[in-house]
Amino acid sequence: MSSQWIYMSGEYVKKEEAVISVYDHGFLYGDGVFEGIRVYEGNIFKLDEHLKRLYDSAKSIMLDIPYNKEDLEEIIAETVRRNQLETAYIRVVVSRGKGNLGLDPTSCANPRLVVIAEALALFPKELYERGVRLASVSSRRNRPDVLPPQVKSLNYLNNILVKMEANQAGVDEALMLNDQGYVTEGSADNIFIVKNGTIFTPPTYLGALEGITRNAIIDLAEEKGYKLKEQPFTRHDVYVADEVFLTGTAAEVIAVVEVDQRKIGDGKPGVVTNHLLSEFRKVTTTDGYKVYSKDQAHVS
Ligand code: PMP
Questions:
Q1: Mutation probe of ligand 1 site: the residue of 189, 201, 204 with most atoms within 8 A of C-beta
Q2: Which residue's CA is the closest to the ligand 1 atom numbered 5?
Q3: Residues 171-217: pLDDT tens digits?
Q4: Would the CB of 209 count as within 6 Å of ligand 1?
Q5: Which residue ranges traverse the bilayer (predicted)?
Q6: Smallest Cα–Cα separation from 132: which of 244, 234, 221?
Q7: What ipTM does this complex have?
């Protein structure tokens, strides 16, 4: 089997040799930002939007990404090409870099960029047909004035803790509320509910990442003539919704059929959810950055 190549600040190295310093503040303190991006048949879906979010996250934590957007796009595309991938998952990480043991980032002179691209095992088809189960968890979403959930930082402990709670409850995903009791998101996906034909999703200021898939679904729903509102809602609204679904790079659009042991609708993926999933899949191969453009020899 050929090696997997990983981009690390200026060079492509073999997976086995892709190591970073234990003094990197990304490792010591979770000081850095990242993106998870998907490639569909050679199309890096919504690459522009992912990079905008990456630069915004970095700006928020005063981390200078030492590459401009065009260079970064090319590095990401080249990482996909080098690994001869068509359908893949990409992880872009920018850490504060190597410093001393103190948490002050001024000791870190060079932020580090890592790009990993690997073949993606798709979620099984049965999961989309069956839907997923959620449980609301006791850990609350980070308050936006503590650690803004809009920043996709390397500090994912909040999300990890709720994922563990969901595992303990024996369900697929956590339903996270904010400190006021309003619904925010899952551990790694945004949430939507459908009631009497209107689609609702929480505003991100309540405590949610501004998901790229979330935004794509908002655009598609509006394009297809659905009424959509970004509006706060509670667990009760979720329990009595006609449909509930999650969105995310990994999950795409997936139905939720049970929340806190309440059956949602008739307990099966709903028509709006299925419609939006099929519309979403139509744009995944076209909306984005083409890795193998016409003048680029296709190697696989
Ligand atoms: N919320 C959180 C906390 C996430 O980690 C993710 C995954 N990036 C999402 C929502 C979904 O965002 P996206 O559609 O950009 O993958």
A1: 189
A2: 188
A3: 999 999 999 999 999 999 999 999 999 999 999 999 999 999 999 99
A4: yes
A5: none
A6: 244
A7: 0.99
